[in-house]
Every structure is written in structure tokens, then in C-alpha cells.
Amino acid sequence: MDKQKTNSKPAEIEIKSKSRNEFFLIHGYTGSTSDFNKLPIKLNKSFNANVRVPLLIGHGTHVSDLDNYSFNDYLMQVEEELKKGINKKKIFITGIPVDDKFLKKINKSFAKKKLGFNSKLLLITIIWGGTGIGNLKHVVECLDSFSRNVQIAIITGINKELYLELLKMHFNNKVKIFGFVRNIDEFMSASDFIIGKAGGSLLSESLTKKVPTIIYGNLSAQERLNANFINSRKLGYFVLNDKAFKRIIKKIINNPKVLNKLKENMVNYSMDYALEDVLKVIIKT
User: Fold this and answer.
1) In this structure, are 87 and 106 located in the same domain?
2) Which of 35, 144, 213, 285 could form a disulfide linkage to 31, CB 3.0–4.6 angstroms apart?
């Protein structure tokens, strides 16, 4: 087996075996090859397969380096990597596997009470990724300024500065602020809808939980594609400005049938069995 690169800085991972099978893993935007932890080694040992994890250009250094590249640059890089001995007929698209806890059915009223909210009032959860980076504060201020008789849960992730800043603010509605949490599944079970960015993991989890998402603001190329997919399939909404944001929020609050229709549409795009699909591919090959 070829040795795996173990530099302190993230680098491409390539583990070879005598097998013709290969796992080709791609890390997320702003991530790195280290995101997979010990998975490449485990896949190699468990299936005696080759494992490749390319480091996307602009990643593994400073976040500002990402500004030098577009989505098409990443797409071209991956396409070039796929030419290195991978038969395109044997590429399987399965969706993003989610943790089993997102598959558990939890009563909405029970979940609201557990998190300290009124079970009879609408609950809106704002999730802006693990780092809480972006225009989250503006979204909170905008939502709280015109909405009444709603509850808002704000998850700031590891952004402690934003967390402390929001704690000092006065709100018109009942607002609870949380930092980094490990029970996103419970928040999704309790929420009537979510406001957030268009990361693949968040959207896959929300689809599994059947909780619609409103995606707001300017996005990276990859997230914009995700957002357009959600919007075009009527699984949620993608809005770019305060006027559209307010219009959609009022539409949802004033007409419960809007949310119900979105949830019905989500059934056909669930990630419930993505992990099972991955395993079927592995067993088959």
C-alpha cells in the first residue's frame, strides 16, 4: 500500500491497492481532504480498494485564496481527475448520506417543548453553518422587525463573537440563541421551517426531516446551484433581498397550506436512503 501523505497542511490523499475498484472522494467547499478523517484508510483496508481524495484548488491555505477561483475551476479540476483511470459508466450518484438520527420521527410539539419553546406557536430556526459566517445578524433583525407571534431559534455555530452580540440585542418575538449544538436533528423536528444557507449537508438533512428551507442572500457558485434546485423543485424558497424575504415569510405565516405543499414535494427528494444506496453500490462492485 502506498503511504498516505501526512503533511501538517492538507494535501491530496492517494492510497493504492491491487484492486481495480476505487473510492473517489471530494471534500466540500471551504473544506479539505482532512475532513474525511480516517475514512480513506478504513475504505482501503475494508474493501482492499484504491482511494483518491484530491485537494481542490485554493483550499488548504487561507480562505481568501478561494476568491481566485470559480465553480467552473473546481468542476474542471474534478473532471480532469476523473480521466485518470475511472470508467464514467461506473460512477454512481447516490446523494449525501445523513446521520441515522435524522431518520428518527420526533413529535413536533414534544421537540418544541424540549427546546424550551411554546408548542402552539410557529418556530423558525436560523442556521448559518457551523461557523455562523455571513449576514445572519441582518436576517435576524429583518425577520424580527415585521413578524409577530412567532418564535425564533438562532444557531450561531462556533462564532462566539456573533453569539455574544446577539445576546445583547432586544427582540420583539421570543428568541433563543444557541452556539454550537450537536442536536440539529431535534431543532429540525421542532421547526416549522428553516432559514439558512444552501450547503449540501444542511439541505440533505432538511430534506430528510421534511422541513422546508428559505435560502437567503448572495451565495457561492456551488450553493447557488443548490438553491436554484430547491427553488425550482418547490422544496423551499431562494430569495435575494429583504423585499422578497418579507413577502415569502408573510406568505408562509398567513397560509399554513404553503408549508404543507412544500413538505409534500419533499417526499420525492428525500435523502433517507442515500447511505443504503452507497452500500448497495459497494456490495455490487
Assistant:
1) no
2) 35
Q: Which residues of 214-244 are buried (b: 16+ CB within 10 A; e: fewer)?
A: bbbbebbebbeebbeebbeeebbbbbeebee
How many domains does the chain divide into?
2
pLDDT greater than 50 at residue 39: yes
Considering the domain architecture, whether residues 84 and 106 belong to the same structural domain is answered as: no
Given 65, 91, 117, the domain boundary residue is 91
Residues 6+ apart with CB under 8 A from 100: none
Name the residue among 56, 29, 55, 26 with its Cα closest to residue 39.
26
What is the pLDDT, as a whole number, of residue 23?
87
Whether the per-residue pLDDT at 131 is higher than 70: the answer is no
User: For position 20, what pLDDT does the model report?
Assistant: 82
- Residue position matching grid coordinates 490523499: 13
Count other C-beta atoms under 10 Å from residue 162's C-beta: 22
Q: pLDDT digits over 163-181, tens only?
A: 999 999 999 999 999 999 9
Question: Is 174 within 8 Å of 153 (Cβ atoms)?
Answer: no
Please state whether beta strands 193-196 and 122-127 pair in parallel, antiparallel, or not at all (unpaired): parallel
Can you give the residue range of the structural domain that contains 34?
A: 13-91
Q: Give the per-residue pLDDT at 2.
A: 43
Give the helix ranges, DSSP H, for 210-255: 221-232, 242-254
Whether residue 144 is contained in a domain is answered as yes
**What per-residue confidence (pLDDT) applies to 19?**
85
